[in-house]
């Protein structure tokens, strides 16, 4: 069974599934993920949709790909959490603040 393709909405779910997929396929590959062997790069790229692939295609190693994915998707998650906190605070103070992305 293969993990689902990575897209804009499923980053955190994909990350966990991909980790276990790589470990089950070749645990040694997971240990070497920061060194960037071609087999591991291939596993990651095969699990990405076109829009995600385009964002990481310039990366030269597995570590760079993984870090880029973290950069792209983790920031959005934190940004959404901050936005929710700010909106809760503004609604409790009676002022309506709308945040645009």
Domain count: the total is: 1
Strand fraction: under 5%
Helical segment count: 5
Structural class by helix and strand composition: mainly alpha
**What's the order of the H and E elements?**
HHHHH
Pfam families: Retrotran_gag_2 (PF14223)
Walk me through the topology.
Blueprint: H1 11-25, H2 27-31, H3 38-46, H4 50-56, H5 62-92
Task: Considering the chains and any ligands shown, give keywords for the structure.
disordered C terminus; single chain; 101 residues; mainly alpha; 5 helices; 66% helix
Q: How would you describe this protein?
A:
The chain is an all-alpha fold and 101 residues long. The protein has one domain. Helices cover 66% and strands 0% of the residues. It contains five helices and no strands. The radius of gyration is 17 Å and the shape is elongated. The chain starts with 10 loop residues before the first helix and ends in a 9-residue tail after the last helix.
Question: Could you give a short description of this structure?
Answer:
The protein is an all-alpha fold.
